[in-house]
Amino acid sequence: MKDHQLKVSPLAVAVLPGIVLLAIFFLIPIANLTARSFTDPVLGLQNYKALFGSQTYLRVGGRTIWLSFLAMSGCIIIGTPVAYAIAHSKRQVLVSVTLAVLVLSFLTSSLIRAFAWMILFGAKGPVVAMLSAAGLGTQTLLATPGAVVIGMIHFLLPIYVLTAVAGLRSMPYELITAAEGLGASRWYALRTVYLPLAFPTIGNAGSLVFVIAVGFFITPALLGGPSEMMLGQLIAISVSKFGDFGFAAATGVVLMLLTLLLLSAVQWLSKPKQKR
User: Fold this and answer.
1) Which terminus of the chain has a lower count of CB atoms within 10 Å, N or C?
2) How far is CA 89 from CA 173, 174, 205, 217, in A?
3) Nearest one of 18, 37, 59 to 234, comparing CA atoms
């Protein structure tokens, strides 16, 4: 009788709910989006021809990648030293305060943060007043690429730091101590020993914030102008103003494929050379 009993692996039981949720909330919507890009309003490639045949849409796509790259680079430059300090500092009070600030910023709504930057960068904001006092007079900093990138970095920085900290904490910090014991300076040990080992962690955290950045909508809509429009805004306009769901779906599919391609390149570059 026992030979006929169905044997179910505990691993399958544990994984099955996740697979079902992934299929319902990710695979099915992606399949529906892709199918609609080819069938709305009629079966064909008209939506992709309209997307790739317009210089305006291609310019918006290139700007989305460029602004997302700048935001990712800013997060890496600013966030990596912070993540390093949190991962290896022995000053627990300082680590706890820094983590609390990061988590509080992460939990704050992106809309509230964008409005805060609008006040700072606006015509009557303190940043414009300081620039005017320094002889660098300008009426407003809003509707500029710089305002959009700063707002994106502000939103993405906690995500980058918290992601990188988890990887950096597993790094063998003893190698730095050993290098210093052999006569290397702290900077030389960090540059030649620690940083190459940390590169995969930095690449993974950077990839994560880049994926989030290419889908930004609120920050460029509030801090940027028409000349800083990103693909997320273009998709929203296609649906809300023109009701062109097929074109919006095609734009989403292209954005997804482009993101996957860039992610694959980053992942390949962040691998240790001996494993390529």
Assistant:
1) N
2) 11, 13, 20, 36
3) 59
